[in-house]
Amino acid sequence: MEMKLEVVVVPVSDVDQAKCFYQKLGWRLDADYTGGADFRVVQLTPPGSHCSVIIGTGLTSAVPGSAQGLHLVVTDIDAVRTELAGNGAEVSDVFHDVGGVFHHAGTEERVSGPAPGHQSYGSFASFSDPDGNGWLLQEITTRLPGR
Asked: What percent of the chain shows pLDDT beyond 70?
């Protein structure tokens, strides 16, 4: 049986501010639905993604800014980093993990620069939305078998 991740709810405090932020990054606005004073659903999709993000009012009890470790997979981390920064995001420098596999929480285990040889799955950059929801760019140039 197939199961596809379609939507991730990201908790925000100011829906219009977050909507503007994500649209400036080039994310497609799919829907903006209001169902009364206490319910609003805004759906946005990153370029090339099959999974969308929903922000809004009355959607989640999660604290605004509490979503962390949201990954956006890219094939050229330097180009995407430059584009996001040009669109207003404060993007970290490219880094890799001291252990060389995935990344640790926080910033203490980060090594400046891409993974040696731009090893697929090993290079990252990070940015946050206005509420502090944390996003990571992960460079994947060659998929693992079965992916």
From this structure: 100
